[in-house]
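USER:
Try writing one entry.

ASSISTANT:
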Amino acid sequence: MALTEYCFAELHKKEGCAVPDTFRLLLEGVLEARRRCKLPFLTGAVVVAYGLPVAAALTAALSSSPAVSGTLSSLN
């Protein structure tokens, strides 16, 4: 999760069309992981990218809601 937070931290700081270096780092990592995969079509090559940003954003959104945060804490 720390890598995801680092890569998306610059998106909140800057407004503009330029792609931040941290986001580019994440994309290059995903690309390299896909290149080195021994069985790229076994899972459709989507496991590496899907879930990280969505899960981080969903967790942040849910934890900020008082009604949901009580439910989440009882599940842990």
The first helix runs from residue 2 to 13. The mean pLDDT is 64. The CA atoms of residues 21 and 65 lie 31 Å apart. The chain has one domain: 2-75.
